[in-house]
Design goal:
Chain lengths: 491, 778
């Protein structure tokens, strides 16, 4: 038993000695220190009742973001600042403007989801006044309310800055506090499992080399980034993870590089940050990422994790494969680079050797004139998992398709390119007939399954129709978009 | 003076918290501060036991054996509970006696409790449960409506409700249409899952915190399981994190398990369900198959109707008889049906027992007739609102329901007319048509549907309520009643009633947790009846105390009682003025009882279930909604663009709270008809058992434009509490307009040649399928 986790809470350094490495922050708050304002609604990061705000030192300021406490492992808080609903109390014990606004607009009924909404709104509050309706919808997409119908909560978001705009944290003090607990070496935490009697280990290195050594030394370790999937192994599958290596403190993994022809994105970069960078060049990728889970999940989850995980329904892969993304893997001191689509071998099987990890992602910048479209189909627009997710990167010169990369998620056991459809349209004049030929060929590319999200027949029909949609959007002026930036459709 | 029964317009008193005023939820501050206490937030005693429930993994089987020795031996396990450990009765059903707490020789759904483990930690309980060796001999299972219908597997005999001669009406009809469609179920998805926390008391008694809408039933059933009289059990609930009907019958099972563990071990015990286990183990809204054969004249007026309702009740009776009765009660919605026959089949399936859910069968019955009317309008090429107006209840000759009740309070015509005007119906029809002409891929649809919903428990004896009011010698008031708070604002409404009666600021009234120790034999907070029943009971209690005060003051100051008035925090005795607190103190010193119970029973109602005739409802609630949607014909995705609602809350006790019920109910109804899909696989397993797979509306699903108004002439013709109307359930069904608007948009995708046979929920897949069908297949 060893190791101490330190984080800031209500202006004090909060220390936890040798915590269970996979204890969730939510359980620690509720049952460890009886701080019960934060609620459990689902324990899988889908309802937002457990939303807290975490502050992280970025250069000389602290970046505050909403995350789900239910799937966040306590040791990952080391060196950060935590704010829960109880933290918002004013010096006079009164309500924060966010809370006051919710009271004024009748924004709570049963009240169980409310603390989570308060914290999502608080993160939005810190972004500054006058959020648009779209921004409010986004900020609240990860919080479910079953009582109000959301109207009063939206109203509160519109009103909160009018109550008081000055109720932000003292940035200087926050920076100083986090610098004081900043760590420059690997954090090692261990404790004995009350269930198995085995010792559980947690390592959080801060350099790439230390990470590479640890992964090599513990090839069976669970690599933990945002924990938006691994968290559920604990809360839902009740798995025992004996060794966890957390990659989220490795600065190099969080770095991005914008070169003349590509973006290099460290595997530890959050989906939120990657979205901002990629969305600026691939408009539709930005729109797709906006619908990638929720704000809380995008703040925790990483692009590298979404890829490394290898799920056939991860939202980023089709979009990145169509864009021609490459993956850099590292093992010990060695690196190798592969095409992203080649990483996925079969369901649950990826091209990653023991001791190897995803280091970074290289996304080429779009060539001049590239037509790029990405679509996500799900029962609900926000915070849903794709039934079908498709992306199209088409180079069209003088009315002819000169190159086509089409990739889909939800259509096979892995994210997969539509090679037959690509072949059917490449070299052809970009006409409705060509698109229809591509749709027909797509039936040879995929044999999707039926499950609770959609039937096989819907998946195939909708995937084919998305090619038609891409055709319409790149050739005609007709409206085709229900959500998001409709301008994109005619870019 | 309160205006109950006087017929005058709403007046508000000069006190804080008078009736008919906007008042925030009494717990609003605590909600936003995170300091409102739910059961799992209560401090955990050191020796607390955590219970995990082991469930059947097959839909129907003989339970051939359970070897639980490894479970018992596992680390941290204090006790294992099975049917054999029950000292009383192995039953937690509301009345039918067919809900065993733990399965004995037969399991009948995936998720049925077979045993429970109580251990020092939740993790230990879960791990221990996994060590059980359970042997099943599987039997053929009926997993859906069609399979159960074919096997004639029912929870009770099929019921018939009829008026006139439907066959004669149909054969004489000028036009005739028939059809069949399906209406899906719905999970409650209360944010706070099922939970119970039991503490053993002396003499083998037990105190149970239960997140329940029905403390009395939980009390009764816990006692039944323990084999003790009801007085050995106290059940308490301060608030629930949502209920929606899902915490009416089901909490008893978890309370009983917690109580059993507590009594058995002498240690406090908590049972909190994980979300997935909650969704698998507890019942939902019934899914229905709706078959109809309708005849009408050239105006679309119905001249004969046969309807067959078939619903999935699941493995036991639960409340399914009353739920299916209510589906029949609402087949008419706002329309006079004349010659009609309704057949209702209540099917037993090997899936979780379905239960109460906001609307209680009403939504399913009501959606059907709206589909029928839109189908008629399409067939005859008539405006769908005009067809609805042609069918509305009218005066004598057109004012009896299929169950023989006379409709005396019909305001549907006024609401429809008002909404058509405020939402600009005619212009919107034209603009939708123009949009559709200009857009090949996106199509818009528009629909206006009304709601009429009957208020009262249709099981007559349930329409009673009790309250307990204390006035302390300092003038502060303690209020308690049998109603429970699940977010709907019942507590603040009842407190307003008491504040109004005593004419004191509401801040002087302490709202307290519902407990069976203060008010006994209560009915569930259900059927939208909370404020109607408990408001009246509290009013009765307050009036009794007020009468004693008046009598005391009249005697003390030697003046006639009618010269004593309570107004704005004061009591006036002829020309003397006292504060309410001062009067309380004087009365205490004068040895006057300042505590009273109150009681209410709903008048006028009666019902003969054998003939399905009578007056099951005291009155009806009305509303109307108009929805505009856009669908994507390439993918089936859609967006609800705009919704306009005009709803009648009578003289609302608290318009702000009622607006919240209307909007929240509508969005919940919209979820039921759109994205909320329950998927069971071929092995009877629910595949949509968490928010990752079961999609209730999210923030951006709220229509970009939503205009809600209360009917400003609203006034209950019956002498309800301050002439208000119930509001919990009726607005849910306003969402029928979304479903019909989607159907209208699909019809537009096929140039209105065919009316689509859309099933609910209209998921994107269902919409795309319907688009392909109206375009002649693909």
């Amino acid at each position: 038993m060893a190791g101490t986790v330190k984080f800031m809470l209500d202006g004090q350094v909060h220390e936890v000695h040798s915590p269970d490495p996979t204890e969730t922050l939510l359980n620690y708050l509720r049952y460890g220190i009886a701080r019960t304002g934060t609620k459990e609604g689902c324990a899988e990061g889908d309802c937002g009742a457990c939303t807290v705000v975490v502050g992280e030192l970025v250069g000389d300021s602290v970046r505050y973001r909403a995350v789900n406490a239910c799937i966040l492992f306590l040791p990952t808080l080391d060196g950060k600042e935590l704010l829960t609903v109880e933290s918002l109390k004013g010096r006079d014990g009164g309500l924060h403007p966010v809370q006051e606004a919710l009271v004024e607009t009748h924004g709570s009924q049963c009240g169980f989801c409310t603390p989570g909404f308060v914290m999502s709104l608080y993160a939005l509050y810190l972004e500054g006044p006058n959020p648009s309706r779209a921004r409010i919808n986004d900020a609240l997409a990860g919080n479910l309310c079953r009582c109000t119908g959301y109207g009063p909560i939206i109203k509160a978001a519109e009103r909160m800055h009018a109550i008081d705009t000055g109720a932000a944290p003292d940035m200087q003090a926050a920076v100083a506090a986090l610098k004081a607990i900043r760590r420059d070496g690997t954090l090692a935490v261990s404790s004995v499992s009350t269930l198995t009697g085995r010792e559980k280990h947690y390592y959080a290195p801060v350099t790439m080399d230390a990470l590479a050594d640890l992964v090599l030394a513990h090839p069976d370790a669970t690599l933990l980034a945002g924990g938006t999937d691994v968290g559920l192994w604990i809360t839902k599958q009740h798995r025992q993870l004996d060794v966890v290596i957390y990659v989220g403190d490795v600065a190099e993994l969080k770095a991005t590089r914008d070169s003349s022809d590509s973006f290099e994105i460290g595997a530890g970069v959050s989906v939120s940050d990657a979205m901002d960078m990629l969305g600026a060049h691939y408009g539709d990728m930005g729109e797709l990422f906006r619908r990638f889970a929720s704000v809380q999940i995008r703040n925790s989850g990483t692009l590298g994790g979404n890829i490394a995980n290898g799920s056939p329904i991860g939202d980023s892969m089709p979009a990145l494969i169509a864009a021609g993304t490459k993956l850099v893997l590292r093992r010990g001191g060695e690196e190798r680079t592969i095409a992203l689509e080649d990483y996925f071998i079969a369901y649950g099987k990826q091209d990653r050797a023991p001791g190897e990890f995803v280091a970074r992602i290289i996304v080429p910048k779009p060539a001049a004139g590239l037509k790029y479209r990405a679509y996500k189909l799900s029962k609900r627009f926000d915070q849903d998992i794709s039934a079908v997710c498709g992306a199209f990167a088409l180079q069209i010169d003088d009315g002819f398709v000169t190159s086509a990369r089409i990739a889909f998620g939800g259509m096979a056991a892995t994210p997969k390119r539509a090679t037959n459809a690509e072949a059917a349209i490449t070299g052809q004049r970009w006409t409705r007939e060509t698109a229809e030929a591509g749709m027909k060929a797509m039936a040879e590319d995929y044999a999707p399954i039926s499950d609770m999200r959609a039937s096989a027949s819907y998946r195939l029909m909708a995937a084919q129709n998305l090619l038609m949609k891409a055709f319409v959007e790149t050739t005609e002026g007709a409206a085709t978009r229900l959500v998001g930036d409709r301008e994109l459709a005619h870019a | 003076m309160p205006d109950t029964g006087t017929g005058k317009g709403p007046m508000t008193s000069d006190i804080k918290g008078a009736v008919h005023t906007d008042l925030r939820h009494d717990s609003a501050h605590k909600h936003v501060a995170g300091s409102a206490v739910y059961i799992d937030d209560l401090p955990e005693p050191k020796n607390l036991l955590h219970i995990y429930v082991a469930m059947s993994t097959v839909p129907r089987a003989r339970l051939e054996g359970m070897d639980l020795s490894a479970v018992r031996a596992a680390k941290g396990v204090a006790c294992v509970l099975t049917a054999a450990d029950i000292p009383g009765h192995n039953d937690v059903s509301p009345f039918a006696g067919d809900d065993p707490l733990f399965a004995t020789d037969l399991v009948e759904y995936v998720g049925q409790p077979i045993f429970a483990v109580a251990a020092d930690s939740r993790e230990q309980a879960i791990a221990a449960a996994g060590l059980a060796d359970v042997r099943y001999a599987e039997l053929p299972a009926y997993l859906d409506i069609d399979a159960a219908l074919a096997a004639e597997s029912k929870i009770e005999s099929s019921q018939i409700m009829a008026q006139g001669d439907s066959e004669q009406g149909l054969s004489a009809s000028k036009h005739r249409v028939s059809g069949s469609f399906r209406i899906g179920g719905q999970d409650h998805f209360y944010l706070e899952g099922q939970i119970a926390f039991a503490t053993p008391l002396e003499d083998g008694d037990v105190h149970v915190y239960s997140s329940t809408q029905h403390p009395s039933e939980v009390q009764h059933l816990v006692a039944h399981v323990l084999g003790r009289p009801t007085n050995a059990v106290t059940v308490e609930v301060r608030r629930m994190g949502g209920g929606f009907g899902g915490k009416e019958t089901h909490p008893a099972m978890f309370a009983a398990m917690a109580a059993l563990a507590a009594v058995k071990t002498g240690r406090p015990a908590k049972l909190r369900l994980d979300r997935d286990d909650d969704m698998v183990m507890t019942g939902k809204r019934h899914d229905f198959r709706y078959d109809y054969d309708v005849g009408c004249d050239d105006t679309g007026r119905i001249t004969g109707l046969n309807v067959t309702l078939a619903s999935r009740c699941g493995r036991s009776t639960d409340l399914s008889p009353a739920i299916n009765d209510r589906a029949m009660f609402h087949v008419d919605n706002c329309y006079y049906l004349g010659d009609v026959r309704i057949d209702s089949h209540r099917l037993k399936t090997h899936t979780v027992s379905n239960t109460a859910f906001r609307g209680f069968g009403g939504p399913q019955g009501m959606l059907g007739i709206e589909v029928v009317l839109s189908t008629i309008a399409h067939k005859l090429g008539l405006d769908p609102v005009a067809v609805r107006e042609a069918n509305l209840y009218g005066g004598p000759g057109r004012n009896t329901t299929p169950f023989g009740m006379t409709v005396e309070d019909n305001v549907a015509p006024q609401l429809i007319a008002g909404l058509k005007e405020s939402a600009d119906y005619d212009a919107r029809v034209a603009s939708v048509r123009a949009f559709n002409a200009a857009n090949p891929y996106l199509k818009k649809g528009l629909a206006l549907t009304p709601v009429k919903f009957g208020i009262s428990f249709t099981t007559t004896h349930l329409n009673q309520a009790g309250a307990l009011v204390h006035v302390y010698a300092d003038g502060s008031v303690h209020l308690n009643h049998g109603g429970t708070e699940m977010g709907q604002g019942l507590f603040v409404k009842v407190a307003q009633v008491v504040a109004e009666e005593f004419q004191i600021d509401i801040d002087h009234i302490k709202i307290t947790a519902t407990t069976t120790a203060k008010v006994p034999n209560t009915s569930a907070t259900a059927a939208s009846s909370g404020s109607d029943l408990n408001g009246m009971a509290a009013l009765d209690a307050a009036r009794r105390i007020k009468a004693r005060l008046s009598e005391f003051l009249a005697e003390k100051y030697d003046c006639p009682q009618d010269r004593i008035t309570f107004r704005a925090g004061h009591v006036y005795v002829e020309n003397r003025e006292f504060s309410f607190a001062d009067v309380a103190k004087q009365a205490y010193l004068g040895r006057v009882s300042l505590s009273s119970t109150g009681f209410y029973k709903t008048p006028k109602i009666h019902y003969d279930r054998a003939s399905h005739k009578g007056r099951p409802f005291l009155y009806f609630c009305y509303g109307a909604a108009m929805s505009e949607v856009t669908i994507d014909t390439l993918t089936g995705e859609y967006k609800v663009d705009r919704v306009d609602i005009l709803h009648d809350c009578g003289r609302s006790l608290n318009p702000a709270i009622d607006m919240g019920q209307i909007e929240g109910g509508f969005i919940q109804g919209m979820g039921w008809l759109t994205t909320e899909e329950l998927v069971f696989d071929e092995k009877g397993r629910l595949r949509t058992h968490a928010p990752s797979t079961y999609k209730i509306p999210a923030c951006s699903d709220r229509p970009a434009e939503m205009n809600i108004a209360l009917y400003d002439k609203g006034r209950n013709v019956e002498a309800t509490i301050h002439r208000s109307k119930a509001v919990g359930e009726p607005p849910f069904m306003l969402a029928n307009s979304v479903f019909l608007a989607l159907a209208d948009a699909v019809a537009a995708a096929g140039d209105h040649k065919v009316w689509p046979n859309l099933n609910a929920p209209a998921t994107p897949e269902e919409v795309l399928k319907a688009v392909m069908a109206v375009r002649g297949g693909n």
